[in-house]
Write a structure and sequence with these properties.
heterodimer; A: mainly alpha; two-stranded antiparallel sheet; 14 helices; 74% helix; 2% strand; B: alpha/beta; Rossmann fold; six-stranded mixed beta sheet; 10 strands; disordered N terminus; binds adenosine-5'-triphosphate; binds magnesium ion
Chain lengths: 323, 265
């Protein structure tokens, strides 16, 4: 073996970041001009859920952990942000930070308990703990029970930009979502992200190489919870209310559906999945046709026809054409 | 005067075992899979663990590396009692294992597989804010390791697409990346072609010069060739131990292998 041969001919180039950059540019451009055709409130709702699903996918797609309790982080952050704006009268960015902090604490507690178990047991523990949190929210006085927290002003961002103006709010939510997605992209494509992938691919092997996988899993869990919390806070800011719907198990189920529908383990998948689901919900909400049936049918189609999700199937098709 | 650490260690290695276990026992419910096994692994030597299917060889591996908690017994690594330690910590102390069922990171390239092993000792495993290009400096070393097991020309292939024998080779490259002091290989040659077996066996005996090596192997020709010390396990108990000549002439061992010197392989 000769070192020179290894250094030159044997050294393949790392995959270029160009496609990702093009995708990002396209996303930013689309977000800038979208309000021309699309109702901004619909767009903002979509963005909140896209970020939520992408945060969830960080755990399911890139670490291999199926959480059935992500509503706790989404809804918990929504409650605290709403409470912060309504009662503490803080500026929106502070309210969002308070929401994220809540999600981090919840993520640490739920994560530390759940990662001791694997597979379906992990999912069941996250579900059980998030249901406990649901009942806490149902009982706690500050959440106002069935009414939720509502009737507060969005206030001014940094005390300057009035977020009660729809277009200001739109560009703020769009910018924060893009930053959130970029953060996820960075985490996935980092030295740390490689270890998460290794855990997903073969946990015992990762342990045998000296990695304390529990710590990596917990870190990924908390990061995912924090970003889900960011999404929940944005949603509370957008609709100016936080209710039990945000912490209920259906919300945990919806985010799983979005991610599966779009394609787990892909960057664009959760965004596409969120768009499809939010679109369907909006469309059928006015039709009087029960949305649950639509969601159920969508799930069936997804499982039967696109096992890899929409984006996953597309990527697979492109790959097989290349080969 | 300068002391060369490796020289000191191999001196000491001749007398004291790097890894030793006493009274190692593992029960699965009522079933006694490993019963009162003593074993010593020395620096610079190849120790082969052989025995029929289901004898408990892999279970001994899992006990030594702490993937299983022993029901009874004591394990000492480099003078430290590791009986109650978790497996990742044991690995960080320099005892690295391979798995009987080939363990690779299927959806990653061969290069990335080896880099995963290199990341931790190079302090590049927690940085979630740095780009993947920060791992580029590990690549020359990873390529060297792949070259050592004859996989350099397929560095960009997905590990899942490799043949079984090549997965074994990749696993060895990944393991060697950690420069282990104690190396445990569970059937490293299984599924390899004749030529690869020879190359890999010679690689294993080369590697064993700088570490203590324990391997489970069914290929008795290789065991005879490179094994310095052999422990025969049957139904969870040590049946015989010693060098190949001693063990292979032991009547009980011959009986366990149904009278055939090369175990019917
Ligand atoms: N986790 C487990 N739970 C229950 N029984 C187990 C477990 N692991 C191993 N055993 C049993 O312990 C016995 C020894 O298994 P082990 O895998 O150690 O054998 P081995 O010597 O490695 O065999 P082989 O040559 O087939 O790999 C077998 O009877 C097996 O069924
Ligand atoms: Mg075995």
């Amino acid at each position: 073996m000769s070192a020179t041969r290894i250094d030159t001919a044997g050294m393949p180039a790392r995959r270029s970041a160009a496609p990702a950059l093009i995708l990002l540019a396209a996303l930013v451009a689309a977000l800038l001009i979208a309000p021309v055709w699309i109702y901004p409130v619909f767009m903002m709702k979509l963005l909140c859920f896209a970020l939520f699903a992408a945060a969830f996918n960080l755990l399911l797609g890139y670490t291999g952990l199926l959480s059935f309790g992500h509503a706790a982080f989404f809804g918990g952050a929504a409650y605290v942000s709403a409470h912060a704006m309504k009662v503490w009268q803080v500026t929106p960015e502070v309210a969002i930070l308070a929401g994220i902090a809540t999600a981090v604490v919840l993520g640490l507690v739920i994560g530390a308990i759940a990662i001791r178990r694997q597979g379906i047991y992990f999912a069941m523990i996250t579900l059980a703990l998030s249901q406990m949190f649901y009942f806490f929210c149902l009982q706690a006085p500050f959440t106002n029970g069935e009414d939720g927290i509502q009737g507060f002003s969005r206030g001014r961002l940094f005390g300057l930009v009035d977020l009660n103006d729809t277009m200001n709010l739109y560009y703020f939510i769009a910018a924060v979502t893009v930053l959130g997605l970029l953060a996820i992209w960075r985490i996935v494509h980092s030295p740390f992200g490689q270890i998460l992938k290794a855990i997903r691919e073969n946990e015992p092997r990762t342990i045998s190489l000296g990695y304390s996988v529990q710590r990596y899993k917990l870190a990924a869990f908390v990061m995912s919870a924090a970003l889900a919390g960011l999404a929940g806070s944005l949603k509370a800011l957008l609709f100016q209310f936080a209710t039990l719907t945000d912490v209920a198990w259906n919300m945990s189920g919806e985010v799983i559906l979005m991610t599966l529908l779009g394609g787990i383990g892909t960057m664009a998948g959760p965004v596409v999945g969120a768009a499809i689901l939010v679109g369907l919900q909006n469309f059928f909400a006015t039709s009087g046709f029960p949305v649950t049936i639509v969601l159920g049918a969508t799930f069936m189609i997804c499982v039967l026809l696109f096992r890899r999700g929409v984006v996953g199937e597309l990527a697979h098709w492109l790959e097989s054409r290349k080969a | 005067m300068t002391t060369h650490p490796a020289a000191v260690r191999s001196d000491a290695g001749a007398s004291r075992a790097v890894l030793s276990a006493r009274g190692l026992t593992k029960r699965f419910g009522p079933f006694l899979a490993v019963n009162n096994v003593d074993i010593d692994i020395h620096h610079g030597r190849v120790h082969a663990l052989i025995g029929p299917n289901g004898a408990g060889k892999s279970t001994v591996f899992n006990l030594l590396t702490k993937f299983y908690t022993p029901t009874a017994g004591r394990i000492v690594l480099d003078g430290t009692d590791i009986t109650a330690m978790d497996p990742a910590r044991v690995a960080r102390m320099g005892m690295v294992r391979s798995f009987q069922i080939s363990a690779t990171f299927g959806d990653m390239s061969l290069l990335d597989n080896v880099c995963i092993a290199l990341q931790r000792p190079n302090h590049l495993s927690v940085q979630f804010w740095r780009p993947l290009s920060s791992l580029d400096r590990l690549r020359p070393r990873a390529m060297e390791l792949l070259d050592r097991v004859g996989l350099a020309d397929m560095a960009q292939r997905r590990a899942a697409d490799l043949s079984y024998g090549r997965k074994r080779a990749l696993e060895i490259a990944t393991t060697l990346a950690l420069e282990p002091r104690v190396l445990l290989l569970d059937e490293p040659l299984a599924g390899m072609g004749h030529e690869d077996v020879e190359n890999m066996a010679s690689l294993i005996s080369t590697v064993a010069r700088d570490c203590a090596l324990l391997m489970v192997e069914h290929n008795l020709r290789v065991v005879a060739d490179i094994g310095d010390e052999i422990t025969v396990l049957q139904r969870g108990e040590v049946l015989a131990r010693g060098d190949y000549a001693t063990v292979s002439t032991d009547p009980r061992v011959r009986e366990a292998y149904m009278g055939s010197e090369d175990g019917g392989h």
